[in-house]
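[Target chain]
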Amino acid sequence: MRSNIEERAVELAEYIIENRSTVRATAKRFGVSKSTVHKDLSERLENIDRPLYVQVREVLAINKAERHIRGGLATQRKFKG
């Protein structure tokens, strides 16, 4: 039987994969900290469900590659109006 932490890690991973969500958005959706989401996905999930871990890492890599674009757009919106 899985512990609550293991269940949460799997649930977070499935949410990120299905919604292509960011760590920040996922943390807000589940009411936990970004640190908790990151630790669950980068450390705990690998030992719980390796194939799911690999899928999550792909989504997180895409998010990391696009991060500078989202930041630039946010700054642009901030100073436009």
User: Anything to note?
Assistant: The chain has a mean pLDDT of 92. Residues 50-80 form the longest helix (31 residues). Residues 4-80 form one domain. The chain has one domain: 4-80.
